[in-house]
Amino acid sequence: MPAGGRPTVRSRRLGAALRKHRQAAGMDQAAAAEKLMGSVAKVSRMETGKVTSRPIEVRLLLDLYEVSDPEERERLESLAREGNRRGWWLDHGGSVSANYASYIELESDATHIVAWQLALIPGLLQTPAFAMAVLDANPAVVPAENRDEFIKVRAARQRRIEDGEVRLTAIVWEPAVTAPMSSPDVHREQLDHLLKASKLPNVTIQILPLSAGNVARVVGPFTGMSFGQHSTLEAVSFEGYTNLVVVEAAEELGWYVHALENLRSAAWTPEQTSAFLRKTLRELSQDHGKEESS
């Protein structure tokens, strides 16, 4: 059984994939149960993620469903192998809620992450000082005693970007970059960090200009994820005030794919974005120099 006695992100994703392949093969759960020499109830629990499928069981079912794509087979067998793997984030106690842990587990498997933000710098690109200022502005989000640990968790998540383990595409509305931050120093440090991150081969940053407000207002902030070699959107998450929602249904994902296409088309190119960041950074430095000389 998955840790905690309930479906994990990995077991749920694996189960959904097995169900999809079974249905595509035109088979019922009884045929799958016969192949595994088990019960229909077990197959049902596997497909809902309530039990962790073993790699050998996944292999047998994929053979039965005639799934020959080696990439897909390896992806699903990997989910089975790692279904109960203990996540590093569980060592950070009260700073990681159950919802947040599920999100990090999903993110840790992603090969491509795309983030759209209206008012904030995406979390995977935030400096510690910027992140702390955001937490200070809304103390209810993370209790004061957990904030240092929360920042450590954020830094650990960012390490996958820095190490090139995952591709990141960030689209940010212009006010998130130009609006005053908690201090000029925090503002300059954050913009400098964005410029440095944009030079990484696995990172693409685009700013949506203020003039594209109609496009910006169509959809709220969200993060999309892909889990294979291709950038096909497979999951989308967005935050409520007290919880985090994950969307995986294909019919719903289509709306987010369409929104991303519009956002990317209306945003400045990565080159134009870097030029804008450098210009904004120069202006901030000049304003700071004037303040010091006055």
Automatic annotation (TrEMBL):
Ranges of residues in domain HTH cro/C1-type: 18-73
Superkingdom as given in the UniProt entry: Bacteria
Species the sequence originates in: Kitasatospora kazusensis
Pfam families in UniProt: DUF5753 (PF19054), HTH_31 (PF13560)
Organism lineage: Bacteria, Bacillati, Actinomycetota, Actinomycetes, Kitasatosporales
Protein name: Helix-turn-helix transcriptional regulator
SMART domains noted in UniProt: HTH_XRE
Coiled coil: none
